[in-house]
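Database export, one record per block. Field names are fixed; values are copied verbatim from the stored entry.
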Amino acid sequence: MGRKALSIDAMVKDLVVSDDLNAKKVLAKKILGIAYKKGIYPASIHDFYIASGRGEFTGFTVPAINLRSLTYDLARAIFRVAKKNNSGAFIFEIAKSEMGYTSQAPVEYVSVVLAAGIKEGYSGPVFIQADHTQVNAKKFQEDPDKELQGLQDLIADAIAAGFYNIDIDSSTLVDLSKSDIRKQQKNNYEVCAKLTQFIRRVEPKGITVSVGGEIGEVGHQNSTPEDLRAFMGGYREKLRKGLVGISKISIQTGTSHGGVVKADGSIAEVKLDFNTLKTLSAIAKKEFGLGGAVQHGASTLPEEMFHKFPENDTLEVHLATGFQNMLLDSKHFPADLKKRMYDWLLVNAASERKVGETDEQFFYKARKKALGPFKKDIMGLAQEVRDSIAAEIETKFDFLFKQLDAVNNRELADKYVTLKRVIVRPRKAAKAIVHDGEGAD
């Protein structure tokens, strides 16, 4: 008598709690095979975005959601919201830095998301994105070749796992000390072009990976039309002739990653420049054929702001910290587990605490670093606890999909996205999965 097949829930649990990369790969291959049989395909959003750039449709903003913890349960919630709202254009993403501090390697993240789609009876394209594939400016200055090699290793690992959407963040190399805008953007566009060329070399046959560029580091000064034109002019010159370039551009409009927390633990008010979004999206489309402009650092914004993103032709908006906050601050999240996480932070993240910082400020900023060390504890919570937390956050997902008008676009996604089965041969885990950089929104 043969062994009983593992349920999808059991496969996910085994994959998440295993410390053996080879064991993860075996489970990942099984999950991918089941996904394909169910009509669930990792996909690139490139052609969809380029069609938007041609003006073939407009009126909604694509939500890109970073899942740092309880990934399976929250991905299931997203798929439920998508099915309910007939949504086809939404992105699951995780940043380079998040992969490190949440202990979610690319092969694990992709597999868990696809397993969630299987569990919820979803079918069609699934967009999985490497958010903030970020250049460390200090390391780049010390040894640019070594820093770029590390990023190439991570990109290759991510693509092999099923990340067919890669956001390159070389905006950390923008040098505002220079008076000439083209010179300010020089290192940014040169590195973005180099990494785009690398992506085109390693992407699967028949897949055009969607690549994003970034012209303004989040948390710094707002982007301008001059910044965009300087970046795109240099990028196009440096990109090898005949290669497909980026499909979107991330800009700075006044937000910061995770928001700015005040001494009492509340989030400071943000003055977001929607006019910049609208103006740069229009230039990106009309002058450069891109899908439009992307907004980072949005999850902690006031709820009444979100309807303004589609009104101002924002292509994509990135959402992360707000969901982490809802998870950790939920009345259903065990108080004893939260205390153990905070006690761990007091010892292991003490060096990150700034002089004069309150406990509220320190824990708000640092608690994401405990998600990896306590991943198994969170995954091991009783199903009813996980279901209760996921239900709360699902309500927020549904609200955001509706506010962004990311509804009733399933047919559009099916029209522009070609489903293609890829033989996945996961590489050895990239050493570039590190904890540096801000990473996500």
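Remark 1: The CA atoms of residues 38 and 121 lie 8 Å apart.
Remark 2: The chain has one domain: 9-321+397-416.
End of record.
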